[in-house]
Each structure stands twice: as structure tokens, then as C-alpha cells.
Amino acid sequence: ARTVFRSPVTKTIVPIDVTSQVVFGYDLLEKLPRAGSRTGALLRELLPGAFRAHRQRLGLEGIYVHDVVALVAALHPELFTTEPMHGDVETEGDLTHGVTVFDRRARPEDSPNMEVAVDVNEAGVVDCILRGLAQAA
Could you tell me which residue, 40 or 14, shows the higher pLDDT? Predict the structure, then answer.
């Protein structure tokens, strides 16, 4: 990750605190493609376990779809608010090894090396995901 962060390529990062703003509740099951479709059948098979795991491990009455939200950011960047920031990955700390660090100070020491998503249009992302599932059916 540090190599990618320090590379000169253009990059946008969607941190977990932003993807966590999108939570699908149990009502998602009613919005899935019909059970007769391959997509609907697969999701109805997989999602109950995901809901159980999120409830047991996180105490959450819904599920996060972090990777899907990040994919939506790539396809529909207009649904996200980003800010230029300098980011890096800690590689030496005992407690912080592998932690992503963003410099959010008004006057950072290093110039920005990426765009970082700081907010998301939750309703827009949910709608985008549901439309994608419907099209996949």
C-alpha cells in the first residue's frame, strides 16, 4: 500500500469511515431481483449469512458493502465529496503497522498525493447499487 500511495499515479482513496456510511438494512431483501433470476437466487442465498455475521460480530442490524461502495466511487464520482490530501502508510509502529494516515492539517508538511473521499451521497449510492442489481438480473 505504501508503494501505491507514494507512486506518482493519480489515485482516489475511499476510506472505510466513508464506505461505512452506506448500510443496507433487512429491507434490502425486498428490493432484490426476483428469486427466479440467477442474481436474485444467489443474493438470497448469501445475504442472510452476511446479516447474521454483521449482527453477531458488529451488533449491526444491517450490512456494510465496502467494496461495492468503492466501486460506485469509481463509476460515479459525483456521488462522493473528495479533498486533496497527503496520505501514507505506517510501516514501523508496533501498534500502528499498516495503518493509513492522512494529513488533514490546514497547512500539511507534504503536498497532496491523492484525492480522499470525505463524504458520500448515501441515497445515491444505494440507488446505484440497486439499479445495478436489477440490471444484472
Answer: 14
What is the spatial distance between Cα 24 and Cα 34, in angstroms, rounded to a whole number?
18
The predicted model scores a pTM of 0.88
Q: What is the 3-state secondary structure (H, E, C) of the chain?
A: CHHHHHCCCCCEECCHHHHCCCEECCCHHHHCCCCCCHHHHHHHHHHHHHHHHHHHHHCCCCEECHHHHHHHHHHCHHHEEEEEEEEEECCCCCCCCCCEEEECCCCCCCCCCEEEEEEECHHHHHHHHHHHHHHHC
Identify the CA nearest to 72 among candidates 130, 19, 134, 125: 125
Q: How confident is the model at residue 32 (pLDDT cuts 50, 70, 90)?
A: confident
71: pLDDT strictly greater than 90: yes
Place of cell 500502528: 96
Instruction: Quote the CA–CA distance of 44 and 127 in Å, as a whole number.
Output: 19
Name the grid cell of 10. 493519480
Put residue 64 in one of left, alpha, beta given phi > 0 → left and psi -120 to 50 → alpha: beta
Residue 33, pLDDT score:
86
